[in-house]
Amino acid sequence: MRKLLTMLLTFLAVSAFADLGEVSVITVKTDGSKIQRRCKLVPQGDGAFRFAIPARELTADIKDIEILGDFAKAKKGESGYFVIPPNSIGSFTQETGTVAERNMALPVFGMKTPRGSFVAIVKGLRFEFSTVAAASGGNYVLYPRFHIGEMGGVFYEDLVVDFYELKAPDDGYPAMARLYRKYQLDRGEVVPLRERVKDRPALKYSAESIFVRFSQGSKRRDLSHWLQTDENLPTFDVYLTSDKFMEKMRKIHEIGMRNVEVCFVAWNIEGFEGRLPDLFPPDPRFGGEAKMKEAIAFGKQLGFQMTNHVCNMIFNRRAERFSEDAVAKRADGTLLPYSIKAIPCGQAFVPCMKVVAEKYTDEDYEGMKALGFEKGLQHLDVTSAVLPHACFDPRHPCTRKQTAEYENAIGLKCREYFGGFSSEAGVHHVPKTLDFAMYTTTFFHRKVMWKKWRIKPNFMLDNRTIPFWQIVYHGIILSNPDWDTIDLDCDLKDESDPALRTADTPDFNLWRRLQLWEFGGRPVFYWNQANNLAEVKKIYDRYQKVSRLQYEFMDDHREISKGVFLTKYSDGSIIITNYTKKPFEYCGAVVPAEDFALIEPSNAVSASVCRQKKIDKAHRRATLFFK
User: Fold this and answer.
1) What angle do CA 605, 175, 50 make, to 5 degrees?
2) d(CA 569, CA 564)
3) What pLDDT digit, counting tens, does each position of 113-129 carry?
4) How are strands ordered across the β-sheet holding 108-113?
5) 333: which of 41, 227, 553, 564 lies 20 to 30 Å off by Cα?
6) 323-354: per-residue pLDDT in tens?
C-alpha cells in the first residue's frame, strides 16, 4: 500500500510540472486588440526553463506582453500561496480579485500549490514589468506583464524570464529566495557583508550600530501654495538647532550607547526637501555652518559615526542650481514631475540621473566633506524606494537600465567619499552598491493609513508579511524590515481596518516590535526630539547581543506553532519569535510570552536534533497509519 502511494505521489509530482515546457503569451496592442500564442520554454544549463523575445521583435504598436503558464495556476481553497516581493504572500482564499505590483523590489515571483512549486527570475527588461496575481471564479493565475508601451520605442535588450521548478520538501518561499540569492552571488552582482567589511570600517561600524536620525526642521506642507515664490513660502518650523543636536548626542552617550551612527536630516538650506538641489549653506535657523561643523566634530569626539541625509531625486524651480536642462523628460518631451505633490518645496521635478552623476554629485560631496563628514553611510533619500526612471531628453537620454547604472555610480561615489551608501528602501536596481535599506516594505503603514489614503485592504494578500527580501539579502545588505519598525521606542495608534483583525492577529505594537527581531533588522530611530531614550537603550542593548547575525545569511523562516516563528541563519543560530501570550519551549529553550530568544549555534544543533526526533516520531505515527 505504501509503495503504491509513493508511486502515485511521484507520478503526480512529475505530471504537475510536465507543462512547465510551454506558456501562453498574450500580446496586447495599443489599439486594444490581443494576440495569443503558445510558446515552448527552452531548458537552460542551470535547470531553468527560459522564455525570451529578442529586442528586435518588440515594436511600438505593443502595449503589454503577458506570460501565463499552467504551472502558475491554483484554485480557491487549495494549500499553498503566491509570493510577490518584497515581502507579500497570498493564500488561495478569494473568489475574485487582483493585485498588480509595478514597483518590483526584486525581479522575482513564485507560487506553491499541491501540484508543485516554482520561482521565476526576470533577467531581461527587469525594470519594465509588473507581477499580477488574479482570481476569477476561484481560479488563480500568477504572471508577469511587460509594459512595452511605456518604453518610448527604445527596446534596449531582450525580454527574458527564467522559470525554475522547486522540489519538495524544500519548495517554499525560503527556497525561492535562496535561489535568487545564489543567482546574485554567482554572477558577482553582490558580495557577502562579511567580505565587504574587511576593508571598509564605516560599513563594519554600521553593521554593529543602531541608526539614529535627527530632523532639524522643515517648511510646512502647503498645497495652497504649490508653486512657491519668495513671497508665499509656508511657515518654517525649527525642530532641532545644532546646539540641541549636541545635547541629544551627549544624553545618548551618557546612558551608555556607544555604537551609534548619527544622521543629520533636513540640515540643508530651507530644511527637509526645502529647495533642492541646493544644499548649501546649512540653514542658518539651525545655527548655521559653524555650529553644524561643531556638532559633527562633537559627535565624532563621542565615538559616533556621523553622516547625513540628502535627496538626488527632487529638483525645485526656486533652487539656484535648478535647470530645466537637467530635468528628465517624458517621451513627449515634457518635464518629468515628482510623483508626490505634498512635499515642503511644493512643485518639483525628477532629474536625469546621468546629469546628477556627472554635474552635481562631486560638488555636493566636496561640500559635505568640508563640513566634517568623512566616515559613514551617506544616506540618499528615495533612490532605492522607486524603480529607475527613463529620460527621453535627446541631450542625455537614459533607459531605465542606464539610469540604474548612473545611480550605482553615485552609490560608488558615496563609498569613495564617505565609506558607504544607504537609502530609503530595497528596490533591486542598486544592490551591488547599497549597504543599508532603511526599510523594505510599508505593510504596517498601509494598515494604519487606510482611512487617510482611502485604500481598502486587498484580500488577495494575506494579513502578514514574510522575510522574503531578507532571505535574499540578509548577510549582504543591512536592513530594517518595515517603515513602522522604525521608532520602536513609541507606540502607534492602531487604525487598521477591522476586517483585518481576527482572534489570531497580534497586538499591533507587539507585532511591530517583534518583527524587527524576527526579520533580522537593524534598529532605526527617526526623531525631532528623542525624548524616550530609556526605551531606546533597551533596544540598543538587545541589538548588541544579536548584531553579529548581520554577517550571516538568513536561510529559513517558518511558523513552527501557532503564532511562533523560527528564523534560521547560516551559522546555525536560530531566533524564535513568540507572538503568543504564553511561554513557548523549543527543545529546552524557553521563549517568554510576546518576546524572542536567540539560540546560539552550539545549542541550535541540539535543538535541531531534538526537533528531528519529534519529526521522526510523527513520521513513525504516520507510517503506522498507512500500514
Assistant:
1) 155
2) 17
3) 999 999 999 999 999 99
4) 42-43, 49-53, 159-166, 116-124, 108-113, 81-84, 88-91
5) 227
6) 999 999 999 999 999 999 889 999 999 999 99
